[in-house]
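To close the section, here is one more complete example, presented without commentary so you can practise reading it yourself. The ligand is (2R)-2,3-diphosphoglyceric acid.
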Amino acid sequence: MGKLVLLRHGESVWNAEGLFTGWVDVDLSATGEAEARKGGELLRDAGIRPDTVHTSLLRRAIRTANIALDAADLHWLPVQRTWRLNERHYGALQGKNKAQTREEYGEEQFMVWRRSYDTPPPPIADDDTYSQVGDARYADLPPELMPRTECLADVVDRMLPYWYDAIVPELSAGRTVLVAAHGNSLRALVKHLDKIGDDAISGLNIPTGIPLVYELNDDFTPRKTGGEYLDPEAAKAAIEAVKNQGKK
Ligand code: DG2
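Output:
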């Protein structure tokens, strides 16, 4: 059985500004680029050598994989990209400031939108500046699958087919697989791997740029629940920071 390495992209410019991002295709900040490089160095230093790479269709995950692989001298690895690893579509919240949203709607509603399992934010209008309707990269997506908003349950539903069809066969063949994706698409995958309940998943946060390694049993259950961050101390602090986003 191969190894699974999960990597949330480095800090994006909208992470730095405290904005809900979702499917908006923002770039990495300079800090995010440095985090991605560090992520690659952590892989290299731990002697973890992915055989294949999977990313979302979003620049922040694509560039993170490129930068990390370059740092690990693995820039030549084969890569597959899919909308199924995209960040959760944040609906009408895309482009909105997290702290202002929390202030306007209150902590409870803010956290329902951010972390509840099955309540999506209000849908985004097709003519909103931050809508992805009409974006060429989603041209092959059947129109009825194009999200206008998503809750985490929706992400689990659209991510799992890719997990079973594209990633599981590679792991079964003994390959080490790197998945470069997002806070919430990785929360969906970790929920599945660690069998985290619908309520408990609200407490899970994934830090930017720190590889999380899962050794798997033959039935794809993790040898160690929660996997292992390659820099556990940095992960602890960064997880706390993600948790507290939107608080002043
Ligand atoms: C963040 C996650 O996604 O935000 O969409 O704003 O991982 O692509 O930066 P990412 C966003 P939270 O759900 O943690 O607020």
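Once you have examined the tokens, check your reading against these statements. The two ends are 44 Å apart (CA to CA). The domain at 3-243 is CATH 3.40.50.1240 (Rossmann fold).
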